Amino acid sequence: MKPFIVSIAVVLGMGFVGSAMSADMPEIAKKLGCNACHSIEKKIVGPAWQAVADKYKGVAGAADKLNAKIAKGGSGVWGATPMPPQIRASDADRKELVTFILGLAK
Ligand code: HEC
Fold first, then answer.
1. Average pLDDT score over residue span 35-50
2. Looking at ligand 1, which residue's alpha carbon is closest to its atom 39?
3. What CATH number is associated with residue 75?
């Protein structure tokens, strides 16, 4: 019974912890160093991920656009400061991160 409850908690946690509690950066974001420039709720060098989620809420193709942006880097959406290409993030990493970020939308 217990392992079952734990696995449910893990699955739900991926989607809901972020919005239910004051969200922490996912491990993968720390591993890849996204947290050097981003946090969930405050602008650092890059925009707060909460703000990113709110901006793209309901926007068609947002996930693909953000995935490509993380891979290639770029500027001009949030200001003049560019995001460097995140070459250490694999396609799977980027998908996971984009799903997390867009999932923060309220
Ligand atoms: C060196 C600083 C830096 C790092 C490291 C960084 N970013 Fe960024 N990020 C930025 C900046 C600056 C912007 C704003 C770019 C713009 O205005 O177009 C940004 C924008 C974004 C956006 C919004 C893009 C858009 O077009 O609206 C997402 C999503 C994002 N970053 C995700 C990530 C992820 C995921 C990682 C880690 C794999 C990461 N960033 C690492 C600086 C950084």
1. 97
2. 34
3. 1.10.760.10
Number of domains forming the structure of the chain = 1
Residue 64, in any domain of the structure: yes
Residue range of the domain that includes 80: 25-102
Nearest ligand 1 atom, CA 56:
27
Closest atom, ligand 1, to C-alpha of 98: 29
CA 52 to chain centre: 9
Within a domain: 76: yes
Say yes or no: CB of residue 52 within 6 Å of ligand 1.
yes
Structure letter (DSSP) for residue 87: T
What was the pLDDT predicted at 3?
59
* pLDDT digit string, tens, across residues 86-95: 999 999 999 9
Higher pLDDT, 2 or 82: 82
